[in-house]
Amino acid sequence: MSRHEGLGGRQAARTPHGVTPLAPPWAPIATMFAVLVTSMIAGLVWHSDRLGSVDAWALRELGAHTYREFRLASAISTSLRPVAIGGTLAIAALSWVALRRRNAVLLSLAAPALTLAAEKLLKQLVGRRWPGSSVLLYPSGHLAVATALALTLVLIARSARARPSIRLTVAMSASLFVLVMARARLAQTTHSLSDVVGGVATGVGVTLAVALLLDSRLLSLMGDRHGSSRRSDPESG
Fold it and tell me: pTM of the full predicted structure?
Protein backbone atom coordinates (compact mmCIF):
# COMPACT_ATOMS: atom_id res chain seq x y z
CA MET A 1 0.00 0.00 0.00
CA SER A 2 1.33 3.45 -0.89
CA ARG A 3 1.78 6.25 1.60
CA HIS A 4 -1.01 8.19 -0.08
CA GLU A 5 -3.40 5.26 0.21
CA GLY A 6 -2.48 4.77 3.85
CA LEU A 7 -3.26 8.39 4.66
CA GLY A 8 -6.48 8.17 2.72
CA GLY A 9 -7.50 5.03 4.60
CA ARG A 10 -6.90 6.66 7.97
CA GLN A 11 -8.86 9.73 6.91
CA ALA A 12 -11.74 7.57 5.74
CA ALA A 13 -11.74 5.77 9.08
CA ARG A 14 -12.12 9.08 10.87
CA THR A 15 -14.70 10.49 8.49
CA PRO A 16 -16.82 7.70 6.94
CA HIS A 17 -17.92 8.45 3.39
CA GLY A 18 -15.93 11.70 3.48
CA VAL A 19 -18.21 13.33 6.09
CA THR A 20 -16.48 15.36 8.78
CA PRO A 21 -18.24 14.87 12.15
CA LEU A 22 -19.77 17.91 13.78
CA ALA A 23 -18.11 17.12 17.10
CA PRO A 24 -14.28 17.26 17.24
CA PRO A 25 -12.31 14.31 18.70
CA TRP A 26 -11.97 16.09 22.04
CA ALA A 27 -15.73 16.68 22.39
CA PRO A 28 -16.49 13.80 24.83
CA ILE A 29 -13.79 14.91 27.27
CA ALA A 30 -14.75 18.58 26.94
CA THR A 31 -18.42 17.72 27.51
CA MET A 32 -17.66 15.80 30.68
CA PHE A 33 -15.41 18.61 31.92
CA ALA A 34 -18.12 21.20 31.24
CA VAL A 35 -20.69 19.12 33.11
CA LEU A 36 -18.24 18.72 36.00
CA VAL A 37 -17.58 22.47 36.21
CA THR A 38 -21.30 23.29 36.04
CA SER A 39 -22.08 20.74 38.74
CA MET A 40 -19.27 21.79 41.06
CA ILE A 41 -20.20 25.46 40.96
CA ALA A 42 -23.87 24.55 41.37
CA GLY A 43 -22.97 22.67 44.54
CA LEU A 44 -21.03 25.64 45.88
CA VAL A 45 -23.84 28.16 45.30
CA TRP A 46 -26.78 25.84 46.04
CA HIS A 47 -29.68 27.96 47.36
CA SER A 48 -27.18 30.64 48.35
CA ASP A 49 -27.87 34.38 48.67
CA ARG A 50 -24.33 35.34 49.62
CA LEU A 51 -21.22 35.97 47.57
CA GLY A 52 -18.04 34.04 48.13
CA SER A 53 -14.74 35.87 48.37
CA VAL A 54 -13.87 35.36 44.70
CA ASP A 55 -17.28 36.53 43.48
CA ALA A 56 -17.15 39.58 45.77
CA TRP A 57 -13.67 40.48 44.51
CA ALA A 58 -14.73 40.08 40.86
CA LEU A 59 -17.74 42.37 41.29
CA ARG A 60 -15.61 45.02 42.97
CA GLU A 61 -12.98 44.92 40.24
CA LEU A 62 -15.15 44.30 37.17
CA GLY A 63 -18.36 46.13 38.06
CA ALA A 64 -19.09 49.37 36.21
CA HIS A 65 -17.38 52.35 37.82
CA THR A 66 -19.16 55.03 35.77
CA TYR A 67 -22.71 55.52 34.56
CA ARG A 68 -21.48 55.55 30.96
CA GLU A 69 -19.82 52.18 31.41
CA PHE A 70 -23.01 50.80 32.96
CA ARG A 71 -25.12 52.08 30.05
CA LEU A 72 -22.77 50.46 27.53
CA ALA A 73 -22.88 47.14 29.40
CA SER A 74 -26.68 47.30 29.50
CA ALA A 75 -26.87 47.96 25.77
CA ILE A 76 -24.62 44.97 25.04
CA SER A 77 -26.70 42.70 27.26
CA THR A 78 -29.97 43.87 25.73
CA SER A 79 -28.66 43.18 22.23
CA LEU A 80 -28.29 39.46 22.91
CA ARG A 81 -31.91 38.55 22.15
CA PRO A 82 -31.96 39.89 18.55
CA VAL A 83 -28.40 38.67 18.04
CA ALA A 84 -29.36 35.19 19.29
CA ILE A 85 -32.41 34.96 17.03
CA GLY A 86 -30.68 36.38 13.98
CA GLY A 87 -27.48 34.48 14.67
CA THR A 88 -29.29 31.16 15.02
CA LEU A 89 -31.07 31.59 11.69
CA ALA A 90 -27.90 32.83 9.98
CA ILE A 91 -25.82 29.91 11.24
CA ALA A 92 -28.55 27.46 10.19
CA ALA A 93 -28.55 28.96 6.69
CA LEU A 94 -24.76 28.86 6.56
CA SER A 95 -24.82 25.24 7.70
CA TRP A 96 -27.06 24.26 4.82
CA VAL A 97 -25.15 26.26 2.21
CA ALA A 98 -21.73 25.07 3.38
CA LEU A 99 -22.51 21.45 4.30
CA ARG A 100 -25.91 20.49 2.85
CA ARG A 101 -26.44 18.35 5.94
CA ARG A 102 -29.59 18.25 8.00
CA ASN A 103 -27.72 17.40 11.18
CA ALA A 104 -25.67 20.61 10.83
CA VAL A 105 -28.87 22.65 10.48
CA LEU A 106 -30.35 20.80 13.46
CA LEU A 107 -27.26 21.61 15.52
CA SER A 108 -27.58 25.30 14.63
CA LEU A 109 -31.22 25.38 15.70
CA ALA A 110 -31.14 22.97 18.62
CA ALA A 111 -27.97 24.00 20.46
CA PRO A 112 -29.12 27.51 21.51
CA ALA A 113 -32.69 26.33 22.24
CA LEU A 114 -31.64 23.35 24.35
CA THR A 115 -29.01 25.43 26.11
CA LEU A 116 -31.68 27.95 27.07
CA ALA A 117 -33.91 25.13 28.34
CA ALA A 118 -31.04 23.62 30.36
CA GLU A 119 -30.19 27.00 31.84
CA LYS A 120 -33.81 27.58 32.93
CA LEU A 121 -33.94 24.13 34.52
CA LEU A 122 -30.64 24.63 36.35
CA LYS A 123 -31.80 27.95 37.75
CA GLN A 124 -34.84 26.27 39.26
CA LEU A 125 -32.76 23.45 40.70
CA VAL A 126 -29.91 25.55 42.10
CA GLY A 127 -32.06 28.41 43.37
CA ARG A 128 -29.34 31.01 43.77
CA ARG A 129 -30.57 34.57 44.45
CA TRP A 130 -29.34 37.97 45.51
CA PRO A 131 -30.33 38.81 49.10
CA GLY A 132 -33.99 39.84 49.22
CA SER A 133 -34.57 39.06 45.54
CA SER A 134 -36.65 36.38 43.85
CA VAL A 135 -34.61 36.47 40.61
CA LEU A 136 -32.71 33.24 39.99
CA LEU A 137 -29.09 33.73 38.99
CA TYR A 138 -27.15 30.51 38.33
CA PRO A 139 -26.14 29.96 35.61
CA SER A 140 -26.12 33.11 33.49
CA GLY A 141 -28.55 32.62 30.60
CA HIS A 142 -26.84 35.31 28.53
CA LEU A 143 -23.50 33.53 28.73
CA ALA A 144 -25.01 30.09 28.16
CA VAL A 145 -26.78 31.13 24.95
CA ALA A 146 -23.87 33.28 23.73
CA THR A 147 -21.49 30.36 24.22
CA ALA A 148 -23.83 27.97 22.42
CA LEU A 149 -24.03 30.30 19.42
CA ALA A 150 -20.29 30.89 19.34
CA LEU A 151 -19.35 27.23 19.69
CA THR A 152 -21.90 26.14 17.09
CA LEU A 153 -20.36 28.53 14.57
CA VAL A 154 -16.89 27.17 15.33
CA LEU A 155 -18.10 23.58 14.86
CA ILE A 156 -19.79 24.42 11.56
CA ALA A 157 -16.63 26.11 10.24
CA ARG A 158 -14.63 23.03 11.22
CA SER A 159 -17.06 20.60 9.62
CA ALA A 160 -17.12 22.68 6.43
CA ARG A 161 -13.33 22.19 6.23
CA ALA A 162 -12.73 25.92 5.94
CA ARG A 163 -9.17 27.11 5.52
CA PRO A 164 -7.15 27.23 8.76
CA SER A 165 -7.00 31.04 8.60
CA ILE A 166 -10.78 31.26 8.34
CA ARG A 167 -11.30 28.79 11.17
CA LEU A 168 -8.89 30.75 13.37
CA THR A 169 -10.70 34.00 12.59
CA VAL A 170 -14.05 32.41 13.40
CA ALA A 171 -12.74 30.97 16.68
CA MET A 172 -11.21 34.27 17.76
CA SER A 173 -14.35 36.25 16.85
CA ALA A 174 -16.57 33.76 18.66
CA SER A 175 -14.37 33.89 21.76
CA LEU A 176 -14.39 37.69 21.70
CA PHE A 177 -18.19 37.67 21.51
CA VAL A 178 -18.43 35.52 24.63
CA LEU A 179 -15.83 37.60 26.50
CA VAL A 180 -17.61 40.87 25.68
CA MET A 181 -20.92 39.45 26.89
CA ALA A 182 -19.27 38.16 30.08
CA ARG A 183 -17.70 41.55 30.74
CA ALA A 184 -21.03 43.28 30.18
CA ARG A 185 -22.90 41.07 32.65
CA LEU A 186 -20.21 41.55 35.28
CA ALA A 187 -20.12 45.30 34.67
CA GLN A 188 -23.86 45.44 35.27
CA THR A 189 -23.35 43.45 38.49
CA THR A 190 -26.32 41.40 37.28
CA HIS A 191 -24.33 38.19 37.72
CA SER A 192 -21.34 37.11 39.72
CA LEU A 193 -18.25 35.48 38.25
CA SER A 194 -19.46 32.01 39.21
CA ASP A 195 -22.76 32.61 37.37
CA VAL A 196 -20.83 33.65 34.27
CA VAL A 197 -18.46 30.67 34.38
CA GLY A 198 -21.40 28.35 34.95
CA GLY A 199 -23.18 29.85 31.95
CA VAL A 200 -20.18 29.28 29.69
CA ALA A 201 -19.82 25.70 30.93
CA THR A 202 -23.53 25.05 30.34
CA GLY A 203 -23.31 26.35 26.78
CA VAL A 204 -20.25 24.23 26.02
CA GLY A 205 -21.67 21.08 27.56
CA VAL A 206 -25.07 21.24 25.85
CA THR A 207 -23.70 22.22 22.43
CA LEU A 208 -21.08 19.48 22.33
CA ALA A 209 -23.58 16.91 23.64
CA VAL A 210 -26.00 17.83 20.84
CA ALA A 211 -23.21 17.57 18.27
CA LEU A 212 -22.20 14.14 19.57
CA LEU A 213 -25.79 12.88 19.50
CA LEU A 214 -26.33 14.15 15.96
CA ASP A 215 -23.05 12.56 14.83
CA SER A 216 -24.01 9.19 16.29
CA ARG A 217 -27.40 9.37 14.60
CA LEU A 218 -25.81 10.25 11.25
CA LEU A 219 -23.26 7.45 11.48
CA SER A 220 -25.93 4.90 12.35
CA LEU A 221 -28.05 5.97 9.39
CA MET A 222 -25.04 5.81 7.09
CA GLY A 223 -24.22 2.35 8.41
CA ASP A 224 -27.78 1.20 7.75
CA ARG A 225 -27.71 2.52 4.21
CA HIS A 226 -24.33 0.98 3.55
CA GLY A 227 -25.54 -2.38 4.84
CA SER A 228 -28.69 -2.18 2.73
CA SER A 229 -26.72 -1.40 -0.40
CA ARG A 230 -24.44 -4.35 0.22
CA ARG A 231 -27.39 -6.70 0.67
CA SER A 232 -29.04 -5.43 -2.49
CA ASP A 233 -25.84 -5.97 -4.51
CA PRO A 234 -26.02 -9.49 -6.02
CA GLU A 235 -22.23 -9.65 -6.29
CA SER A 236 -21.56 -8.64 -2.68
CA GLY A 237 -20.40 -11.28 -0.20
Answer: 0.84
